[in-house]
Design goal:
This protein starts with 5 loop residues before the first helix and ends in an 11-residue tail after the last helix. The protein is an alpha/beta fold. The N terminus is likely disordered. The longest helix is centred in the C-terminal third of the chain and has 18 residues. The strands form two sheets. The chain has a six-stranded mixed sheet with strand order 6-7-8-3-9-10, with helices on both faces. It has a four-stranded antiparallel sheet with strand order 2-1-4-5. It contains nine helices and ten strands. β7, α7 and β8 form a beta-alpha-beta unit. The radius of gyration is 19 Å and the shape is globular. Helix content is 34%, strand content 24%.
């Protein structure tokens, strides 16, 4: 399948106010077998308020893109900006939700959700009001005093999402947040995420291996090439909002989107270089 790079170029030109910019980024990690180049001449622009999904072969650098934007890693070449400011250290403009359970086991739900506000020195009275409102918004009202061990997997995900949103970050990074969950629970949380996003219109960069999930949630999906990665394809999702996570597969455009995205990934399966550890 021949993949055209033009759609991503067009998408960049349409963006009036970018929230995220990668320009000519190169990232190399040192492994026991020598330098491992993960990104090369990587460029991407995400509009303010856009929900962008990132897919690609395993090992193509999807998580690296998020870590660079979060300021947890630094590029070896190129430029990264968030809301017009260069990312040259830990990026306090973003919220970061991973697939791993990062709740503090000795803290209750409300104490976990309050952590970002405590770090920012928010007054106790304001902190309490904001925490209770956020817990209610993610459907955990009544579980404020529960510890993580007393919650189901889906409830822990809700608590993590509340903690990510509580300090009102301008951009939210999500690294396969629903990956370990069963199919039914994943649909419930996808619907919850879409509801919260539609209310806030935050900029979201969402990494997933699931093409159906990407089409269901995103305004635009980009496919990364094998390492050293670049953006191989940019696909604007032509399915109107609001969307139903249960019915999106029946939308007329769904099959075409799926075929193009899967075709772009399928041609690269097995071509990803193997790491020698």
């Amino acid at each position: 399948m021949k993949v055209c790079h033009a759609p991503e170029t067009v998408a960049v030109l349409e963006i009036a106010k970018p929230a995220v910019e990668f320009k000519g980024v190169r990232k190399v990690f040192q492994s026991r077998s020598g330098p491992l180049e993960v990104l090369r001449d990587f460029s991407l622009v995400v509009a303010e308020g856009e929900f962008l999904a990132v897919v690609g072969p395993s090992g193509s650098g999807k998580s690296t893109v998020l870590n660079l934007l979060a300021g947890l890693d630094m590029p070896d070449e190129g430029h990264i900006a968030c809301n017009g400011a260069p990312v040259d250290g830990v990026n306090t403009e973003i919220g970061y939700l991973t697939q791993h359970d990062s709740l503090l086991p000795w803290r209750t739900v409300e104490e976990n959700v309050a952590v970002p506000l405590e770090i920012r020195g928010v007054a106790v009275s304001e902190r309490r009001d904001r925490v209770h409102a956020m817990i209610a918004s993610v459907g955990l009202k009544g579980f404020e005093r529960h510890h993580p061990r007393q919650l189901s997997g889906g409830m822990r995900k809700r608590a993590m999402l509340a903690r990510t949103l509580i300090y009102n970050p301008s951009t939210i990074l999500m690294d396969e947040p629903f990956g370990p969950l069963d199919a039914q629970l994943k649909l419930v949380l996808q619907a919850e995420l879409m509801r919260l996003w539609s209310e806030s219109r935050k900029t979201v960069v969402f990494v997933t291996h699931d093409i159906v999930e990407a089409i269901t949630l995103a305004d635009r999906v980009v496919v990364l090439s094998p390492r050293p990665s670049r953006v191989k394809l940019g696909e604007r999702i032509a399915i109107g909002r609001p969307r139903s996570v249960h019915d999106v597969r029946f939308a007329p455009a769904f099959e075409d989107h799926y075929r193009r995205l899967w075709g772009a990934i399928e041609t690269d399966i097995g071509r990803q270089p193997h790491d020698q550890q």
